[in-house]
Write a structure and sequence with these properties.
Length: 159
């Protein structure tokens, strides 16, 4: 009894609380694994906007014709503002039958209406001309949705 206490033995601990079995991989001895986070700051050099028409009519042919005519004028305005075909693309074209409810009967109307939506995405590389280009397109009958600022694929100006 009065001797020194028995030395503590260290046993290897194999504990990985956030690790799933699929996360375990074998790395060569001497490998260091590092996780990090980066941040890039850059000025936007591209505006991407969606312009289009939303037409309601009593006949499908009337709705389609009106949408097509208006969108042709919008495309002409965008091209006239210097945008190339590569900067423009149709992102939505939809046709829907609309049957409004009759307030008196509570049933759908027997006379359907039609809705045609046609949207184009315009990529505007000259940010100083965004307002002028949107004004031109809207004067030709387009409505606009959000215009987010973005970065082109180039990395010029990143710091």
């Amino acid at each position: 009894m009065g001797g020194s206490p028995a030395p503590l033995e260290a046993s290897p601990i194999d504990y990985h609380p956030r690790e799933r079995p699929a996360d375990r991989i074998s790395l060569p001895v001497g490998t260091i694994t590092v996780a990090g986070e980066g941040r890039i700051t850059a000025r936007p050099d591209l505006a991407i906007t969606t312009l289009g028409v939303d037409v309601h009519a009593t006949s499908l042919s009337e709705a389609m014709a009106e949408a097509a005519g208006t969108m042709e004028r919008v495309w002409q305005a965008l091209r006239g503002a210097g945008l190339q075909d590569a900067d423009l693309r149709t992102v939505r074209y939809s046709v829907q039958v609309e049957r409004p409810y009759n307030q008196k009967t509570g049933r759908p109307s027997d006379s359907p209406g039609y809705r045609v939506v046609n949207l184009v995405e315009a990529r505007i590389p000259d940010l100083n001309r965004v307002g002028v280009i949107l004004d031109e397109a809207m004067a030709r009958g387009a409505g606009a949705s959000a215009t987010p600022w973005s970065l082109s694929t180039s990395t010029t100006g990143m710091r």
